[in-house]
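INFO worker-7 received task bundle
INFO bundle size: 2
INFO processing item 0
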Amino acid sequence: MGLRDSLLLATLAALLSGAPAGAQELTGTLKKVKDSGAITIGHRDSSVPFSYLDGSQKPVGYATEICLKIADAVKANLKLDKLEVKLVPVTSATRIPLIANGTIDLECGSTTNNADRQKQAGFTNTHFLTATRYVAKKEKKLDKIEDLKGRTVVSTSGTTNIRQINEANTARSMGLTILPAKDHAEAFLMVETGRADAFVMDDVLLASLVAGSKTPDAYTISSEALSKPEPYGIMLRKDDAPFKAVADAATAALYKSPEGKALYEKWFTQPIPPRGINLKLPMSEAMQKAFANPSDSPDPAAY
């Protein structure tokens, strides 16, 4: 290895360590935050328990708290006395454009980290693993994917899930009528009111919608999944290595610490605001491994 290679590796190591800014000229999001004294977090309205509005319309949730930890790390990295945290609502359809055009710096919700999205955005370490299933009323006696043949189903616009059910519809000649909804709440309402037979979405989000419904016992989630386990990650701008290094270091430290497990239990195994529902989802073995070995890989096989 030559001197030039050694210097390049040393520079890269410093960059990836999330070392305090100042050792090199600020660029990208770190410069934006330093200059403005503010960081902007995109939140969701109904992605329970990841990012949603509580009884006083305040954004709360598991992913929201992780983003606030990242904001703390950015403040420390930039050695700022104060850092304003701005919260901006986003939807499944607007989250990537708003990250790309600089309106928000972090997107905190239930966004699947996959290879296609990594062409448009960056992701921090995985904070949850899910799979695509569907929810339906028990009276319809639906359980497997094939049971949906000829039915009307709904999924949220701009999600991985609506792409997957469209692909399954074509590949399996299922004859589905697939309706897009603007958000998860509208999609579940369509099942609740009979406008759709099933709502295709990440299983954990379906569990939260059922737990928060007027009649939780009236619904069932399919036993068969439409996908392999999929990683959720906090989204940030693509090709912004210095900012991503800070976010990666902050999330890795959180997940490996007892605080990470406590944060998970707070939102998945205990009553949560505003109605005190309990998702009763203890940390899976796969999630324990993901926390022990933080990764931003979009490949389900990595988990």
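INFO item 0 finished
INFO processing item 1
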Amino acid sequence: MGLVPFGLYLALFLLLPTVLALSSGFFQKDGSFTWDNVAALGDPVIQTTFITTLWLSALTAVVGAVLGALVCYALIGVRHDGPLRSVIDSASGVLAQFGGVMLAFAFVATIGIQGTMTVLLRDAGFDIYANGVWLYEAPGLILPYIYFQVPLMVIVFLPALEALKPQWVEANATLGGSTASFWWRIGIPVLAPSFLGSLLLLFANAFSSYATAAALTSQGQSIVPLQIRAALTSETVLGRENLAGALALGMIIVMTIVMSLYALVQRRAARWQR
């Protein structure tokens, strides 16, 4: 009985919307069955959108994971109850959720066409938009995504790094091992599953992000969530609302693969966190 509220929550806010989204991809507006919406996934424009979303998610996940892991490594010697650790923990929790319109505005005000840094750099003789304005296209999403990927990596990877037992360091030193040999033979192999799991989580986080891209890229539908929005709200392509269901099906397939791999990796990582 204790799991009933949680089960109802999952059913109402996860399973039901997923079923409705998937089923809409197989039906026309009049309720008749059709394969046309699913077949539209083979459209070159849709495929390009999926490819763009995948490389954007992979790139920001890798960069965010590496930078976040370096921050976690730097925090090893910091006291758990110290002010610096409290500030970083609080900042990571806030910045990991600092997306959407607020983050888009911050980047527009900083490195937009007339942003503060853009003007200062232009006055100094360096024009970051000399080859065209990239901030409002898919490449322009890289920096905002990394902005919330790094703190998320700190939140999910720091507990794994702190779970390294001091006895392992002492055993390595007793046997004549160096710091480099500890990380090469013990630290990296033990942390690899946790790092890979965190990397997959960051990929899923970027792949499903919508608000920041919607606020920053007003023209074009460069990623899948924006294509879904266009299918639901476009005034120029009418009668294709159910295409959004087919796009959601593609996203759910990708997310199912990623989260299944994440579950497998986490199961292996849990062996070293007991």
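INFO item 1 finished
INFO post-check item 1: The chain has a mean pLDDT of 85.
INFO post-check item 1: The two ends are 28 Å apart (CA to CA).
INFO worker-7 idle
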